[in-house]
Fold:
Amino acid sequence: MKFSILFPQLRGWVGHLANVWPAPFVKPNFAIFEVFHILTLIMLGGASILIGLRLMGSGVTDEKPSDVYKDMRVWLNIGLWGVFFTGILIGMANAERLYDSAAFLAKMLCLVGGIMLVYGATRPVALADGEISTSALVWGGLGTLLWLGAIVVFLTGGLITPGLYHVLTAAALIVAFVTKGRQRWIYAAGLGAVLIAMYVATHVILQPDDLKNADPANVALAWLAGLWIFGFAGWAVWSGSRGATPSGLFVKALGYVTILVWVTAAAGGRWIAFA
Amino acid sequence: MIRAFLVWLQSLGRGSGPDAQSWSEALHGSLNFWNLLEGTHLITLLLFAGTIFAVDLRLLGVTFRKLKVSELSERVLPLTVFGFAMMVVTGLALFFAKPVEYYHNIWFRMKLIFIIGAMINIVVFHYRVQKNIAAWDAAPLPPWPARASAIASLSAWVVVIVFGRFIAYNWFDCGKPLPHFFNVVEECKISEHGAIDLKPAAFKVKP
Structure:
């Protein structure tokens, strides 16, 4: 799935974008704008990680979620809008390639979903120290749906599908960070077992160049890893919220998705160049 | 000597057949693995640089002003250290894929210099600046040595990120006509592509 399939009638307009100001200025200075895109993405990522982890009950727990949000708000805003505007500039200079890129569609779904999550759900929930409103629930749900849409684009995107390993890795690390004690060891042991199984299946039982057989085995075990990570995340959130209000579950899940949506956006951005 | 070692490193594991690849070449030519390493290296910046910036901004008195510096560090630095470890592992693997090319790359060399600078700054902060942290731990605006260290850290890591990205561009690759300075700094003379000095006349602006 890509923009050129969804909106084929736009090809002429997209092809002309590279000639529209400021694209002719951006193109020869692409590297400079790209660097600003990366730096603002880092600001956005850092702020999202700290806010998201706090909503999950980890990270800077010495402060209330509202204080963490207020402390990070400026950097979150600079990061998000910096990514947005530098993205438009480098996108205009490179429009035809993006139009034919499935990774770009995934990135755009994450961008829109991320904005919904940050401003529609994370912001009000964090400022209210975990109290959720109906609108936060709706925006959080819509943002999550768009993020899941990006995951589907990755899954069905052929050459970009391996980019999902970035999302899986981030998802796995967040769970490792927020779990504690025995729960963390059980999680690590299960994940380690899946990874070893993946290696044995594709390097010992089968050979890596035997793509016909190794590929389905790899995909099946990646699904297993995903199920383990997200299943465990669900269990950790559920068990950690036992006795708490149902909103605790939503708030923790929101923190998790708020981080993952930007990781997925970054993965989309990087895989534009690869496939 | 360093180059000779890297040439050896690049040829490590090569078989005897005409199409035989070294481990380094196999890594660089892999269908997805190199891309995954490169992507992970970049995305880990969100964790590593994103969190180190938060601590640096606290030292500058810009964020988390109500929180003690030590408390913020205790909560955030484990994430930063883990991110740094991932950056190092993926960075070394990426370097292994093209060691000789990176050796002759000016951006890579400058990136290493600034990484060393950032490391020295961490050591100075840890053993000198932080010694009397109890006196300013809760201060919204830490004293100037701490702020200077934060500015040095922020600047160094931003430059490392910028140069890291510039490595991908071939503006100053050996074998191209380059100003003499670049050929010297990149040791192009001993590179596979040699050194071609750009004639000084090429710089003259026509009246």
